[in-house]
Amino acid sequence: MKDLAQSVEVGVFQQRGGKVTRPKVWLKNELIRVGLAESLSTYVMMSLGLGSVAQVVTGQGAFGQYLSINLGFGLAVAMGSHVGGKISGAHMNGAVSFTMCVFRRLPWKMLPLYISAQLLGSFLAAGTIYAVYYEAIHDYCGGNLTVTGEKATAGIFATYPAPYLSLIAGFFDQVFGTAMLLLCLMALSDQKNKPAPAGSEPAFVGFLVLLIGISLGSNSGYAINPTRDIAPRVFTAMAGWGTDVFRVGNGWWWVPLVATPIGGVLGAGLYKAVVELQHPHLSEAGGEMVEEAVPLDKEINTSENVCV
Q: Which residues cross the membrane (predicted)?
């Protein structure tokens, strides 16, 4: 599969006899490069995002409030997009990868690689933040790792519903939040509409996640990302919180897994049907015909594929 990813350069182009040498690479396997970039971008995003939650929770309001978490995750997404955007597209979100496959912007055979990379990055990030805040967490909760209650700490790592939220309402909450994410991502990448200026895509995606957190976060913590939620949840189950992480909220754990891909497809599909498919062809306006969307397997490193 050609042009799957940019080479990881460890040298520079050198002029020799009028010819330009090819860049040197550590890894020549394109799939490995894409997987590593996706893992690292997810790791950066999750480490900084979870770190903002840990600081607010263990600081008991002294080091930030809910808005600090919104800002932390928004900026974390922007930084993660910079890390892997030119190589893997920096999806950092299983719902994004699944939606890109549905709309033929990513080959289905690439989906397991993306999901595995995102799960690995999220799991390692959860372990890292637990290590960094180990003493703060245990000082805050007195060494009693709980999922619910006044001193609950499992919410640092995974999302849980508010006490009033039913499974049905929570499912709709996650469908709607993820639909807004993918609808807006499609708009930001639509070259025939008002796309984000070249080079500014990570910042705009970060602002989008910030906006979703501010407007749609109180019900269940706006997971809007299945891999972001399940990997840290598994980590907490292994690290001392136990199986309560799967039982709380009437078995809430499956909702971010199932609802978010559905929401992603619905949101992207709505934008495509109502806006993208209604664009006039350039030939009708006297211009040249152009391809409306570049398949991700042909040009995975374009700015329109920088997502969360």
A: 113-133, 164-188, 200-218, 251-271
Residue 304: predicted pLDDT: 41
Q: Which amino acid makes up residue 214?
A: I
For residues 52 and 17, is the Cβ–Cβ distance under 8 A?
no
pLDDT given for residue 4 in this prediction: 34
Contact between 229 and 257 (Cβ < 8 Å): yes
CA dist 308 to 89, 110, 198, Å?
A: 9, 16, 17
Query: pLDDT at position 26, please?
Result: 74
Q: Which residue has the tokens 């994004």?
A: 96
- State residue 297's pLDDT score: 42
pLDDT of residue 204: 97
Cβ neighbours for 4, distance < 8 A, ≥ 6 positions apart: 30, 31, 34, 297, 300
C-alpha triplet 103, 106, 109: angle, nearest 5°: 115
> Rounded CA gap, 256 and 226, in Å?
5
CA 255 – CA 258 distance, rounded (Å): 5
Cα–Cα–Cα angle for 239, 74, 306, rounded to 5 degrees:
100
> What is the residue extent of each domain of the chain?
30-275
Listed residue (48, 7, 25, 34) closest to 89, CA to CA = 34
User: H or E segment at 83?
Assistant: helix 66-84
Q: Which residues of the chain, if any, have pLDDT below 50?
A: 1-18, 20, 284-307
Check residue 157 and report its DSSP letter: T
Please return the burial class of 114, using the count of CB atoms within 10 Å of its CB with bins 0-12, 13-18 and 19+: buried
Task: Select from 42, 52, 103, 67 the least CA-distant residue to 225.
Answer: 42
